Amino acid sequence: MSAQQSLLEAASKNAELLRGLNETESASSSLEQSQAYLDDLDREINVCNTEIQHLEKKTAAELKDHKKYAESSTRRFIVRKSQHFAEKASKEEREYVEAVAAENQAKSRLEEWMKKREEAKKQHATLENTNKTHQRLQSELDALYNSIFAGPTPDFPGEDQKESAMREAKEAYNIAKQQHEAEIQAAKCLEDAETFMLEVLEWLENARENSDIDKSGSGTMLANLLERTALMKARNAIGKAKMLVEQAQRLSPNIPGLGNIDIPHGHVISAIFLDEDIFSDKAQHARIKSSQAQAQKEAQALKEASTKARERSQQLEQKAAVALTRLETARRELQRIRREAFESFEGPPPTYDEAVQHSLASLTI
Predict the structure, then answer these.
(1) Which of 35, 188, 207, 302 has a CA positioned 20 to 30 A from the CA of residue 123?
(2) Among the listed residues 269, 261, 266, the one whose alpha carbon sits nearest the alpha carbon of residue 292
(3) How many CB atoms lie within 10 A of CB 252?
């Protein structure tokens, strides 16, 4: 088959394949970023599972010690055990409560990781299908061009240079696209972290209000229990916020970490029933207010980091758009020179006289 016939037969197929490739261009770079994200989630899930196994063992051991003293703590009101015994019982109870809280926080983090992984897997499956389509189209186009343009193409001046320019533009676009998508995910993590930080502030305020009642000397067992619950929920929320900020840092090196926020534990159960003295209640109230100040400071810092991440995302989006424009230009130039190769074998369009003569001949027939 002559070169002219090959080009003529390949013209429509060439246009169809180029159109399909343009529609699926970003699939490859998006899939790479998606896989990296899934790998990161899998690592965090494995770490969480290991941590939970360790904490479950610790909680079981602390519960055993706590029960041993809890059974005696009822009798101490009758037999008046020593102060040392009471302190030891309170210590074992506190350690058990802290172990349960740590285990719950770890399980809460695992739940968040699993939820994110499920969402990421769905998105990844869609990208895989799009990328397979892109690869199929690319393979068909490569086969088509190899059959026509393989090796040096002195008959098609400039084709080799345009092909090289397009490869370079495509690589630059893939890098810009990956950076943009990473920053988008980082910004989303910070946005989610902000939501949890708002929860932290709400639960600390709830704890402070109940602590106000307690330190006034008119505290009730209910106020103590509500304060304890609010502090536990605040710790869970700050754990989730930190987890998300750390994930954002892995995606973007420009994001600062979340500072330490010391959230006190609530009164242990025995202290609630025994109603600790007002001085202890005032000290707890001061600790809660200190936690609020720390949390407000970190919430503001997180808000600023989130704003900067969104700004970087917009800048990287513009950078990716510029890279895409250059890629499209390089592709059009390559397509143009190849189209010209097709046209060169088709010959110049007929002159007006030739067209008229052809038309008259058709009418005669």
Answers:
(1) 302
(2) 261
(3) 22
